Amino acid sequence: MARYPGLTLRVLGKGRPAMGPGRAALLAHIARTGSISSAARAMGMSYRRAWQLVEAMNRSFAVPVVVTEVGGKRGGGAAVTPLGKRLVTLYRAMEDKASAAIAADLRRFSAYLRNPPRQRAVRRPR
User: Are 54 and 66 in contact (CB under 8 A)?
Assistant: First the structure.
């Protein structure tokens, strides 16, 4: 199912964002690169902002979604925990379900826009 580009799904925990498209993408980039700073660069985001998002996610869930290792010979790094990986998978599945459920309604709604968005698949890091 091609995701509709105008749909943004956010999952709240205690009234605050727990997961959204940016956080899911950040986790996917960290999992791929093993680094918060590399993930931030890949997303065009400051390291500080990426670190803030990681801290916020770690506070939102019962166990951390990202763990870090400081310095040493190899320079440290970051890893997405099994829970973090599972959350990204669940979030992507919810996005796909939401997109499928409202696709026809979004097409009808978009017909009234002055410049309707083109229907296209959105690529996202896995």
Answer: yes
Number of domains within the chain: 1
Residue 24 binned pLDDT confidence (cut-offs 50, 70, 90): very high
89-123: per-residue pLDDT in tens?
999 999 999 988 888 888 888 889 887 666 555 55
CB 65 within 8 A of CB 27: yes
In a domain? residue 24 = yes
For position 48, what pLDDT does the model report? 97
- Summarised one tens digit per residue, pLDDT across range 56-91 is 999 999 999 999 988 655 667 999 999 999 999 999
Alpha helices in 34-121 (DSSP H): 36-43, 47-60, 82-110
Task: Check if the beta carbon of residue 18 is closer than 8 Å to that of residue 59.
Answer: no
* Inside any domain, residue 98: yes
CATH of the domain at 82: 1.10.10.10
Q: Which residue has the tokens 């996917």?
A: 28
Q: Is residue 5 part of a domain?
A: no
